[in-house]
Amino acid sequence: MHQRLFLPALVEDPLSFFLNLLPAIKPRQPSEGSSWFVLWPIMCTILHELDHLFRHRLSPPLSHPGRQFLT
Questions:
Q1: What pLDDT score was predicted for residue 58?
Q2: Is 15 helix (H, G, I), strand (E, B) or coil?
Q3: For residue 69, what are the contacts with CB-CB under 8 A and spacing of at least 6?
Q4: Are 40 and 66 in contact (CB under 8 A)?
Q5: DSSP state, 12?
Q6: 40: which residues sit within 8 A by CB, 6+ positions away?
Q7: Per residue, what are the HEC states of 20-70?
Q8: Exposure pattern of 8-22 as b/e (b: 16+ CB <10 Å)?
Q9: Angstrom distance (rounded) from CA 55 to CA 3
Q10: pLDDT tens-digit map of 17-42
């Protein structure tokens, strides 16, 4: 998970780390939120995979993870 989110192994809980960095308001400039265009789909895919692992069922992969939140 650390490699997929481009984090060092020193970060204990990478998902919580990034969720705590979510902005409370919409960024004023597009450059302020540009990293989320890469990280958010990765996080959605990881959460989707974890959800289905814990529910013990297979599901199709997400086609466009997190797209609706990035527009």
A1: 65
A2: helix
A3: 40
A4: yes
A5: S
A6: 65, 66, 69, 70
A7: CCCCCCCCCCHHHHCCHHHHHHHHHHHHHHHHHHHCCCCCCCCCCCCHHHH
A8: eeeeeebeeebeeee
A9: 25
A10: 888 888 788 778 777 777 888 888 88
Length of the chain: 71
Q: Three-state DSSP class for 5? A: coil
Non-local CB neighbours of 38 within 8 Å, separated by 6+ positions: none
In angstroms, the CA 43 to CA 36 distance is 10
Distance CA(29)–CA(31), nearest Å, equals 5
pLDDT at 71 over 60: no
**Which amino acid is located at 16 in the chain?**
S
The one-letter amino acid code at 71 reads T
